[in-house]
Design goal:
Elements (H helix, E strand, L loop, with lengths): L1 E2 L3 E7 L7 H13 L8 E5 L5 E5 L4 E2 H6 L8 H20 L2 E2 L8 E3 L5 E3 L6 E2 L11
Antiparallel strand pairs: 1-2, 2-4, 3-4, 5-7, 6-9, 7-8
């Protein structure tokens, strides 16, 4: 879609039976709290049914598809390393904010123009308390 007649946006909607409206809206709350240039930007939320999340549009789609079927197949190592560094910068920010993404994979990274990579899909993200990192034997 188009936001304010000028900005391309992606509209995510809750498909019936996939997850609870509360969980879907919690993802939006996390996106609202986490703002970084390597995280997909949240623009708006419609919190009444039908529920929608409006985010920035990433022109090349998921990193998985981009590397398997798109122009990403032809990238050289320096470009791939730069993309990995962008993802690492986004993940470092998430950690600084005391969150864990819990589902980082190529399908949840979106690629825009000029090989810009941004982390998306915060459905499994979780806030951690400072004392929650404890060593476990196993």
């Amino acid at each position: 879609g188009t936001w304010n007649g000028t900005t391309k946006v992606a509209v995510k909607t809750l498909k019936p039976g996939t997850m609870s409206p509360e969980a879907f809206l919690e993802e939006a709350q996390i996106m609202k709290r986490l703002r970084h240039d390597k995280l997909v930007q949240l623009y708006a939320v419609v919190s009444e049914e039908p529920i929608y999340i409006v985010t920035e549009f990433m022109s090349q789609g998921s990193l998985l598809d981009f590397l398997k079927d798109g122009d990403g197949r032809y990238l050289k190592l320096p470009q791939l390393v730069d993309m990995a560094a962008q993802i690492a910068a986004g993940m470092a920010y998430i950690e600084r904010m005391n969150y864990i993404h819990r589902d980082l994979r190529a399908a949840n990274i979106l690629v825009g123009d000029n090989l810009v990579c941004k982390i998306a899909d915060f459905g499994l993200a979780r806030l951690i308390e400072d004392n929650e990192y404890t060593a476990r034997q196993g």
